[in-house]
Amino acid sequence: MSSRIVVVGGGTAGARLAERLPVTLLGEEPHAPYNRVLLADVLAGRYGPEVIALPRPAGEPARRGVRVTGIDRAARVVHCGDGSTVAYDRLVLATGSNPVLPPLRGLGHGRLPAGVHAFRTLDDCLALDGLVRPGVRAVVIGGGLLGVSAARALATRGAEVVLAQQGEHLMERQLDPEAAELLRRHLVSLGVEVHTECRVRGLKVASGAVAAVELADGFVLDADVVVLACGVRPRTGLAVEAGLDVRRGIVVDDRLRTSDPYVHAVGDCAEHDGRLYGLAGAALEQADVLADVLTGGTAAYRGTRALTRLSMDALELAAFGEAVPRPGDDTVRLTDATRSAYRKVVVRGDRLVGGVLVGDLGPVGTLARAWEGDEALPDAPLLHLLTHDGGS
């Protein structure tokens, strides 16, 4: 194992490596590494920030509040914003991703107006926590997993929440229209006003603070708080400036190596086999593979089959793979409207390629194992896959 492993980024992937190996972890945020997946639960008041802290590093404590400004690949040194340098034998870029800020009127190009926040970091979460109280008018822009989680958290705190989704239904990347409709109904039952196929044109700002959100059809939503949940973009600036191969993300091979064999990349910033994952499960799997690689092992990363799960009070949902069938695929659906339950699987040939479950998640363990293993399905009818309770 190399004696000097430097990891840039204290998110899920970087923290996992620091848990596995003695490394120098440089984190830009002032906080100790934490679980981003649980930020919505912090905003909802279910957990305090200390509860979502990740395990401490195996070696020296993480260096917090350290911004890496450049990489000297020839000298194998990283330069930090405080003027210090850190030498490495192997460098790991775990720089994560930045929230996408939509091109809205009134948003500006620098500092966001007061009351407007992304929902990506613990600082974002704490800032929103200080603004939320019963009766506050909050508009969440974006109906993906992050936007849905933020809307639910804000409604739990008593805010008057409007969720504006540009697409045809909520969580378009994971859910089909039927499952998304059950999710919409649940949000409405929590007091969230949901608008789909709704394009936001701009923000109205008064005295430096947001006052309203203007929709493309001219309708105006009063707002004290606006949450931007419009997706993320890999942070690749350091890699680009260092001359590494970057497409949408930092290009890596099956050993998580970049175009420089002494530099690796994992997590949201890494592009493997043309894919960006942006999922905690993929970040953890990549970090585990790289930990083996850096200790002389033979592990190789072959991609991640990640299951998305969301718990929203009385509603549970899980989604994996391709929820929309192709011509020739077999599809089985079970719907129980009285219990707001929905189960669907998509089978291509003898392989399970996707599924969505809302409500009782009893079969999800069996389905996930069949999908993750990419093995031929048993001869049992497809209906058995949906009704068998294999545990979760």
UniProtKB/TrEMBL annotation:
Cofactor names: FAD
Keywords attached to this entry: FAD, Flavoprotein
Flavoprotein recorded as keyword: yes
NADH-rubredoxin oxidoreductase C-terminal domain mapped to chain residues: 308-367
Residue intervals of the FAD/NAD(P)-binding domain: 4-287
Pfam families: Pyr_redox_2 (PF07992), Rubredoxin_C (PF18267)
Protein name: FAD-dependent oxidoreductase
